[in-house]
Amino acid sequence: MPSKSRRPDSSDVTLDYHRELVQRVAGSCVLEVLHQQLWWMCELGGCLSSELVDKIHPPYTWTVRQVVEHCVDAERVFGDRIMRIAAGDQTDLPPWDENAYAASRFGLGNVSHLITELGYLRQANLLLLQRIKPPTWSHVGTVGGHAITPRGIAWISAAHLQHHFEIIEKRCEISPSRNRE
After folding, report:
1. Which residues form the DinB-like domain (predicted)?
2. CA–CA distance from 44 to each of 22, 47, 97, 118, 171 (Å)?
3. pLDDT in tens, 30-40
4. Which of 71, 99, 137, 181 could form an SS bridge with 4, CB 3.0 to 4.6 Å?
5. Are 29 and 6 contacting, i.e. CB atoms less than 8 angstroms apart?
6. Sign of CA dihedral 31, 33, 34, 37
7. Which residues lie below 8 Å from residue 57, measured CB to CB, with a gap of 6+?
8. Secondary structure of the chain in the HEC alphabet?
9. Where do the domains of the chain lie?
């Protein structure tokens, strides 16, 4: 029997964009990937100076602070979706408008506090994933009419954070440690 936290297949993630993001994530166990990213969060947060976080780095239109806030919002949304679909909620969950969230919250958070909040949300999502029964990882729900499973959402969460953190590293020309050595 395959592990509950194995890599997703086409029934777990149905949108091509999400599949492409997930393919870029190394590893075979999403719980390990999500846990390892906690280290990366701390290291990245420690590399960000106050002059870097509020600067726009063209061609991007969001500051680094705004990107971190976006990652916090996304982690919260992913956790809610995992919980609802794992519980068997058959409501077609609405997509979230990241730009509307961003417009209402930009500039509100101290970056170190945002990294801390992101870490707590990730830890909460990890605890949720560890306590749900193995069969529920394959429950199929819908978001915006597209089928997805808690397993798929967990992998998308890891891929989403990786995507944005890699952009932050490039923009700020920093190379924080991604792994505890």
Report:
1. 47-168
2. 21, 5, 26, 12, 12
3. 999 999 999 99
4. 137
5. yes
6. positive
7. 64, 171, 172
8. CCCCCCCCCCCCECCHHHHHHHHCCCCCCHHHHHHHHHHHHHHHHHHCCHHHHCCCCCCCCCCHHHHHHHHHHHHHHHHHHHHHHHCCCCCEECCCCHHHHHHHHCCCCCHHHHHHHHHHHHHHHHHHHHHCCHHHHHCCEEECCEEECHHHHHHHHHHHHHHHHHHHHHHHCCCCCCCCC
9. 32-172
User: What are the φ/ψ torsions at residue 143 (nearest 5 degrees)?
Assistant: -130, 115
- Calculate the alpha carbon distances from 158 to 9, 101, 125 in Å: 16, 20, 11
Domain at 32-172, CATH class? mainly alpha
Q: What percent of the chain has pLDDT over 90?
A: 76
Over residues 34-75, the pLDDT tens digits come to 999 999 999 999 999 888 898 888 888 888 988 999 999 999
Counted residue by residue, the chain has a size of 181
Q: What single letter denotes the amino acid at residue 44?
A: L
Q: Which residue has the tokens 């949300």?
A: 121
